[in-house]
């Protein structure tokens, strides 16, 4: 679900109606006189635009033959030997994966390696194994292991969020009543058809400070 935040400032309210026509009718009326506990308040109804939103699909494909290895220890032996020891170590795996190794790509500078197995699902046994023992010259090191994944975005698009069912009230005067009571009085006013209103799905009023509300697509 795409969620778009909106900043609601002091003495403002957001009202979302069940019927889009009600919200648009109230916007056209512009000014409204609301009775806040025997105190008359002139409020203005404004349309508003949400911030820019982003929509995309994230596709992740996990390789069944490759794993990524990092934190390979800096050993004082030739790189070919390190590759051989990595191959031997993962060939003897007891984690439910592993097996015959097709290729070992090792980068000494970044201390990383990519292990490619011959068996199609050989890498699946390492998915839940984040640290893997690596035995060299009688010492045991811990390698960080993660599955090799291909990640790409599809249907990436920007859009301008507009809620045609929601109105923004400005200029609500402060009263001695608590925030919840004022919110109830605003809701009662804008629910009445005689005031141009209708059924309200949601309402949020802020008397002090600032709050953030989220709109869901």
From TrEMBL:
UniProt KW keywords: Cytoplasm, Immunity, Innate immunity, Nucleus, Secreted
Family: Belongs to the NMI family.
CC per GO annotation: cytoplasm; extracellular space; nucleus
A Gene Ontology biological process term: innate immune response
Presence of keyword Metal-binding: no
PANTHER family cross-referenced by the UniProt entry: INTERFERON-INDUCED PROTEIN 35/NMI N-MYC/STAT INTERACTING PROTEIN, N-MYC-INTERACTOR
Location(s) in or outside the cell: Cytoplasm; Nucleus; Secreted
The keyword Manganese is annotated on this UniProt entry: no
Species, as recorded: Stercorarius parasiticus (Parasitic jaeger)
Top-level lineage group: Eukaryota
Domain NID, chain residue ranges per copy: 13-102, 113-202
Name of protein: NMI protein
